[in-house]
Fold this sequence. Notes:
Elements: E1 52-54, E2 60-62, H1 63-66, H2 84-90, H3 100-108
Antiparallel strand pairs: 1-2
Amino acid sequence: CALPIFCPKCQEVRLAFECARMSCGDRCRGCLYCIPRCEGCGRCITDANDELAETICKDYLCLDCWIPLSKCNQCNRPFCPRHADEETKLRDRSSRFVCLDCQYGSFQYI
């Protein structure tokens, strides 16, 4: 099945994705600029009941995907599943980690 190359929302030449939720139908079909999507599960995050959670790498996750991930001890943001291997590089012996943004920020003011 080929993906549409025109977004039905903005009419730009962009890949238009369908939602992973069965209840949405074609209502939330659109490009990544028009319809925010969870990096973990791919579903749309457009309902008032959905909260958009940001990751260290600036991707977005729905709360169902965000909650189980380990988070930075300072900013409370996780790595998205695509960049989870970066987290293991930053862990200390106690299995906690501080992201590079927080590490850099803490050194900036010394």
